[in-house]
Amino acid sequence: MIPLSLARIAEVTGGQLRGDPSAVVTGEVVIDSRRTAPGGLFAAVAGERSDGHDFAAAAVAAGAVAVLATRPVPVPSVLVADVPAALAALARFVVDALPAVQVAGITGSSGKTSTKDLAAQLAERLGPTIAPAGSFNNEFGHPLTVLRADASTRYLVLELSARGIGHIAYLCRVAPPRYGVVLNVGHAHAGEFGGLDQVARAKGELVEALPAGDAGAGRGGVAILNADDPRVLAMASRTPARVVTFSCAPGALVRAADVRLDDLGRPSFTLLTPEGSARVALRLHGAHHVPNALAAAALARELGLGLDGIADGLSGAVARSRWRMEVRQRADGVTVINDAYNANPESVRAAIDALAHLAQCHLGRGGRGFAVLGHMAELGDASRASHEDIGEYVAGSGLAGLIAVGEEAAPLLAGARRVRSWPGEALAVPDGVAALEVLANLVKPGDVVLIKASRAARLEGVAADLLREADR
Ligand SMILES: Nc1ncnc2c1ncn2[C@@H]1O[C@H](COP(=O)(O)OP(=O)(O)O)[C@@H](O)[C@H]1O
Ligand SMILES: [Mg+2]
To answer: Are 292 and 350 a contacting pair, CB within 8 Å?
Structure first.
């Protein structure tokens, strides 16, 4: 955070100051009062469960210099009409005050957080980097992340999410990116968007917002596009920036060849760039992380990281955000894949592919694969058919069993039954507790169990309990 006086904060946000204009905010801006640090600014937000204004005094007692609020509070404050808009204005002010910071935005339907974490670990090799924790990617998390930048910051690696047209354009006005990465156009939130073409329209706002490729030394925009996704590649015509492509097939500027998976589904591949090639072995699980790694590599290459730095950096990079393809083994030899952070058709297929691979590798030890799947939310009219298709995909992948958790996930079973030759077991259970009971009887040492659902299903607890099971 660059030091900002309350007078300046009031001016930038168009707010009304109630306090000492010369008091200076030097610490982080937060919306969770429990995370208030001395010298910080607490932004009071009215949420579903609680209203931040009720914690204004506590935040100041914990060291906050003032509170950004929409109604009077009994402590120093800047009163604004709209807190997200005020945070956006402050973030934009900070970005404009730090011209040496290179801003990179990453969007797509699946893999934003994973790619952001990889790209941040590469950018850190070049200089001080700020990237959001987890999925801080909306109208709150985005400006809060940007506000952490200060004069020492060189790179801002941001994750941009959209649930509708105009959302990404808005985030790009908060922190105008020079680099824009688009990973894929898939079915995440497709119900809200009204189809894949609308998703593509929304994600493409990132590359539309980039500066022209010839904007001058150190300023030209770069659009980094996945050549394996036709809807993403088509975005090349929507950007004034220079276009760089990545792909698992020949033809792109940055690509992967000779992809292999180890026994735990961790991919290794040969990274091919115009400067040469190098072998990369990821610590992440699942072949779907190869395009994510290529995207991060293409971005880091544009930032100036050499091939060896990219290959070393990718091979050393760890999963920084929880519940995304976390692979753990129980003492009795049962392997649990906790991918319960969220779910959409593409990410479920990716996880099933990884599960099938792990089960295959465990076959010699009697291993079988079980998919414990909850509901995929926000798919709109396509929801039932999508669940059926995933059920069919599970059965076609040769897994030993499918456990559908919750009423909304039940269509998975109808899909699995389409594969008449499948000898596996398909069961529906009402909730996570029931899923655990079924698994306790079903799963034997050597087996591999995938846990995956949309966030609302909160199945990560099932994965945690399943891992503890052997200790009982
Ligand atoms: N390129 C990809 N294709 C399909 N699924 C992916 C891809 N990258 C990540 N995933 C899966 O999608 C889920 C969400 O990953 P995450 O990196 O958090 O993406 P996002 O931030 O876009 O939601 C995880 O289950 C992850 O394994
Ligand atoms: Mg995310």
So the answer is: no
Instruction: Give 118 Cα–ligand 2 centroid separation in angstroms.
Output: 13
Ligand nearest to the CA of 133: 2
- Give the number of other Cβ atoms within 10 Å of residue 430's Cβ: 10
**What pLDDT shows up at residue 470?**
61
As a whole number of angstroms, the distance between CA 5 and CA 24 comes to 4
User: What would you measure as the largest C-alpha separation in the chain, in angstroms?
Assistant: 75
Which of 114, 283, 372 to mutate to test ligand 1, by most ligand atoms within 8 A of the CB atom?
114
DSSP 472: -
**What secondary structure letter does DSSP report for 255?**
E
pLDDT attached to residue 472 = 53
**Atom 9 in ligand 1: residue holding the nearest Cα:** 111
Q: Which residue owns the Cα nearest ligand 1 atom 15? A: 111
Q: Using a 6 Å CB cutoff, which residues line ligand 1?
A: 110-114, 135, 183-184, 286, 288, 291-292, 324-325, 339, 341-342, 346-347, 350-351
Provide the percentage of residues in the chain whose pLDDT is more than 90. 84
Q: How far is the CA of 432 from the centre of ligand 2 (A)?
A: 23
CA-closest residue to ligand 1 atom 18: 113
**What is the phi/psi pair of residue 468, to 5°?**
-80, -20
pTM recorded for the entire structure: 0.94
**382 exposure class (CB count in 10 Å sphere: 0-12, 13-18, 19+):** middle
Average pLDDT, integer, range 249-257: 97
**CB-based contact 146:175 (threshold 8 Å):** yes
Ramachandran angles phi, psi of 245, nearest 5°: -115, 155
* Residues whose beta carbons lie less than 5 angstroms from ion ligand 2: 112-113, 135
* pLDDT 10s digits, 382-399: 899 999 999 999 999 989
H helix count then E strand count, the chain = 17, 22
Nearest CA to ligand 1 atom 19: 111
Looking at the DSSP assignment, which residues form a beta bridge with residue 158? 105
Residue 346 Cα: closest atom of ligand 1: 4
